[in-house]
From TrEMBL:
Residues 190-320 form the Ribosomal RNA large subunit methyltransferase K/L-like methyltransferase domain. The keyword S-adenosyl-L-methionine applies. Keywords: Cytoplasm, Methyltransferase, RNA-binding, S-adenosyl-L-methionine, Transferase, tRNA processing, tRNA-binding. This is tRNA (guanine(10)-N(2))-methyltransferase TRMT11. The gene is TRMT11. Its EC number is 2.1.1.214. GO terms for biological process: methylation; tRNA processing. Residues 9-180 form the tRNA (guanine(10)-N(2))-methyltransferase TRMT11 N-terminal domain. Coiled coil: none annotated. Belongs to the class I-like SAM-binding methyltransferase superfamily. TRM11 methyltransferase family. SUPFAM superfamilies: S-adenosyl-L-methionine-dependent methyltransferases (SSF53335). It comes from the Eukaryota. GO terms for cellular component: cytoplasm; tRNA methyltransferase complex.
């Protein structure tokens, strides 16, 4: 199982959550810190154990300062399908690489981690004692050791069929833990200002990582809502900016989204959310603006555009219109008034978004957004395309039995030219996604059918 020619092998212990998002996050972060994810990496699908080849321990540590999909990383000293294979692998590991961590002045401890099985204390001690052939010269310190080593055993993914012996056993030196605690510390439940569609904290950080957000970047969200995505980017040191068509949301006015609270308080707004986490210095501004008519001079302003557009389910899809666009039968509005009640087809919204990103992103900047799809009709050809943007990843999150949303990550690879603005209309990708303009109707038709089915089964 060794990687040919690999000098620095690391074992990554992944979280068993958001499985589809894990690989793109690790790839993006390795790319951000100067590493590279190659086809020779050993990943095991849904398995939490991944073997990576990383150029240096510094890159490994930087990776763990950002990832919310990985729990821990270890410098891999040995790996086998059985204890005998593991011991043989450890005996072949260069002693000069072990010595700096095993000398007599050092302290250490050895931990056991098992996946899909629980060991007794007696079994754990037996496994540790079997490693006495390693040249440990330091003292054991269980409370504050200088070095931590781990035996990690993989008993597969089926909790109903746990094997007697592990499929794989690993031994390595612990390097660092990931940022899983951010999911709890930034939980929407504890947030000062929330809305009906505030993004889950874990997914917000995953989106920022997919977007390769880094210190001093400028990150923009054209459908900012209550600013959850801005918070994740600001946590990583980026300056954040956003717009939204809803005046009340931008200004923190109107009815509250929290249970048992009727109206929003005087200081419930996006700036207050960033202040709550000590991130106010990264807040540039949020404006009331229509994403379909961006009021920007031509130029490249943003390092990343990260957003969750409305799907028409809990938030309506709207754009501003003009007198000429007002449907017949409605009373004429005053000349000074522009109505905000015109429908905004999903396909139009996403192609406007791609055009906007192509125009305003720096070269190499990333667009990260959610694309809602009706699962029975979905094909990869439906993902919107743009000549200036390259598709990096496409991950699914199921919403129901018949709907899901895809987290799309794209990178700007070509400078925008005026002729690029409409070239996507000629693409094979344009017509297929137009069918999803009726996503809302299809979503609720599925809900209606499910309710009818449940009522029928209850009557029988």
């Amino acid at each position: 199982m060794a990687l040919p020619g690999a000098v620095n092998r690391y074992l990554l212990l992944m979280a068993q959550e958001h499985l589809e998002f894990r690989l793109p996050e690790i790839k993006s972060l390795l790319s951000l810190f100067g590493g590279q994810f190659t086809s020779s990496q050993e990943t095991y699908g849904k398995s939490p154990f991944w073997i990576l080849s990383i150029p240096s321990e510094d890159i490994a540590r930087n990776l763990m300062k950002r990832t919310v999909c990985a729990k821990s990383i270890f410098e891999l000293w040995g790996h086998g399908k059985s204890p005998e294979e593991l011991y043989s692998s450890l005996k072949n590991y260069p002693v000069d690489k072990m010595v700096p961590f095993l000398h007599s002045d050092s302290t250490y401890k050895i931990k056991i981690h098992t996946f899909n099985k629980t060991l007794t204390q007696e079994e754990k001690v037996k496994r540790i004692d079997a490693l006495e052939f390693l040249p440990f010269e330091g003292k054991v310190n269980l409370k504050k050791p200088q070095h931590i080593f781990s035996i990690l055993e993989d008993y597969g993914l089926d909790p109903n069929c746990i094997p007697e012996n592990p499929h794989n056993i690993y031994f390595g030196r612990w390097i660092a833990d990931g940022q899983r605690e951010l999911i709890e510390s930034y939980s929407v439940k504890k947030r000062h200002f929330i809305g009906n569609t505030s993004m889950d904290a874990g997914l917000s950080f995953i989106m920022a990582n997919h977007g390769k957000v880094k210190e001093n970047d400028i990150v923009f969200d054209p459908f900012v809502g209550t600013g959850g995505l801005l918070i994740a980017s600001a946590h990583f040191g980026a300056y954040v900016y956003g717009t939204d068509i809803d005046y009340n949301t931008v200004h923190g006015l109107g009815k509250a989204s929290r249970k048992n609270q009727k109206w929003r308080g005087p200081d419930e707004n996006i700036r207050a959310n960033l202040r709550q986490y000590g991130l106010e210095k990264y807040y540039l501004d949020v404006l009331v603006s229509d994403a379909s008519k961006p009021s920007w001079r031509k130029g490249t302003y943003f390092d990343a555009v990260i957003t969750d557009p409305p799907y028409g389910i809990r938030e309506s899809t709207r754009r501003t219109g003009s007198q000429k666009e007002i449907p017949k039968g409605l009373e004429k509005c005053p000349e000074s008034h522009v109505p905000v009640s015109l429908s905004y087809h999903l396909s139009d919204m996403f192609f406007d978004l791609l055009n906007f990103a192509a125009e305003t992103l720096v070269l190499g900047g990333r667009l990260v957004y959610w694309l809602p799809v009706y699962t029975p009709e979905y094909t990869e050809e439906m993902v919107p395309w743009h000549p200036c943007l390259k598709l990096i990843s496409n991950c699914e999150q199921k919403l129901s039995s018949h709907t899901s949303r895809r987290l799309i990550t794209m990178e700007k690879v070509k400078e925008f030219e005026n002729r690029d603005q409409y070239s996507h209309l000629l693409s094979d990708h344009f017509l297929p996604y137009q069918g999803h303009n009726s996503f809302r109707e299809k979503y609720f038709s599925g809900v209606t059918k499910r309710i009818a089915k449940e009522e029928k089964s209850n009557q029988e």
